[in-house]
UniProtKB/TrEMBL annotation:
Keyword Endoplasmic reticulum: no
Organism field: Vagococcus bubulae
Domain named PRD: residues: 272-378
Protein name in the entry: Uncharacterized protein
Keyword Transmembrane attributed: no
Gene Ontology molecular functions: protein-N(PI)-phosphohistidine-sugar phosphotransferase activity
Signal peptide: none
Domain PTS EIIB type-2 as annotated: residue spans: 380-468
Amino acid sequence: MAQIDTWYDILNVLVSYEKIKETELRDIVRVSLPTLKKELTLLKGQLESVLKINKINDYYLLEIIDYTAFESIMNGELKQETDFNSVKKRVAYILKRLIDTNDYLLIDDLAQELETSRGTVTRDLKEIKKVIEKFGVSISGTPNKGLKIEGNEFDIRLLYLHHVYDYYPSNYFIPNISSYMTTYSLENNIPTNSVNTWKKVLEITLMRIHQQHQLNKPIPHYTNYQWHDESFDQLIYQIESLYEMTLSQYDIDFISFPLNISNTGAVEKVYMNEPFIREIFDQMMQHVSNLMSVEFDEEELYTEMRFHLLYLLNRLIFRIDNYDYFYGELEKKYPFAYEVAKVAMEKIEEIIGRQSSEAEISYLAVYFELMMKKNRPQDKKIAIVCNTGKGTANLMKQQINQVLGSHIKLETYTEIEYQEIDLSNYFAVFTTIPLKNIDDKIPLIRITNLFNDEWLHSEWRRVNKMNQLQFEHVDFSFTHMKKASTYHKQLSQMIEVLRDKKQVDAQFEERIIERENKQTTVFGNGIAFPHALNKGNNRIVFHLGVLGNKCSSDEEIRFIFMVGIPQEMTKKVEAELLQLYDNMLRITSDKEKSKELYELNSSEEFYDWLWKEVV
């Protein structure tokens, strides 16, 4: 029943937000407004004794009445109540029957058990094959015998966890163990969702061992951070005593994994597979270096990121999706950091053999953005031009610091003094008088009401936007690309334009093509990002190629960002480069703005348009 999935989507969002606008909730859940209102009404009616969903001034707020019942619902209880009209319920039933039996199953028998037609079961099996393919599991069919599921025990357990258990929980669990697990979780700060998964995993493990299916080999790439933990060993001892069994190390590893997917800070004191994490990090950063023209202090980044990486790897191994608290907003706000994270994740996926979610890319992007932010010049100097004396100037400094923060460096000048100063070195200029011969690119704030905090914040936001486009060290070019048969020919056309302008050195094309041959910089969102060192030029060369046709590539290329990078960059130049990437990625991801780009005809038009769009 798709309705249950929608209900869980709604609840997950309401749990994550203190309050959320109706239109935002609609966009996140991806239903129409009438459908959202209908589902909210049904959901409130179904769970009226458990929760309330209040609407105040176009905002929805969740109020929980019965926390115990709510926890059970969030742990999948509603799925158990669905009937066989739900495709997912039928899929879960068929998978359960195939996994539980050691023999073949006939389609006709499954149809009879589900009280549906053979055709419906056949269609469900097609859906099942799509699901199990991701797990490396298959269903074989033998004439006159029926169907049988095939795969290694590890993948079958994960399949059961993700697609069967919530609909058909097993009955092997012992309350005494549940109590011990709860105590352990509280002592070790294990999140509630991980505890719920842990209990499911233990039930599945006990059930499979009871059916004579044990894990008989190590879990690839997995590190058990509960290894040699006394309280966890005690839990394993209790399980073995109650069930009169001996668990293999591989089964113990499997039971432990829900404790090893969230950063609780416990790993340092237990065990960490440092060499493996470092190897993953180094390969990831090499891949980023091959594709992206950005440099990081890798030792500092590794120190910040390593614990996130070790839990990320375990989540990928066990196909656990991290909940997306950003809901796509991080990609919009920090597009370049998100692109770097996508490239980094490509290498991790390749090594681990798993596909990540957008949420995992977003969380990884946070680390890249924070590191890039550290590398940007942080000091913001402001000039104050005032002709009413030092007392007034000091009062202005005090008010600006109070509203905008004490981290801002303020310098005051008289009406005469400012004319001897290069004001382009300042982040912004506050003035009580009209200023003569000032470059219109200098962010200017004419003081009209200094004690209106709202006005001051508004002007400060405007100045920040203007500074986002202070590209003092960038030479822009813009070209409508001619039709070409291949991507490499498109690149040659663009380089020819730069060569005619004497903006790139003689070997620039060779370096671009060499890099592309080693690893293409065509991204999946229709943007290509060819870049290389540009010797003999201390300025950034940025050439935007707009394509109106396809060339022979895996996907349609809409825009080519070609960048010539100086061999040596100051922090200010590097900050301009990163800001340029952010702005261009943000603009080209907007359909309406992308259309406007196609209407431009020259580099001058492009720069003027870019200034208008950002400011």
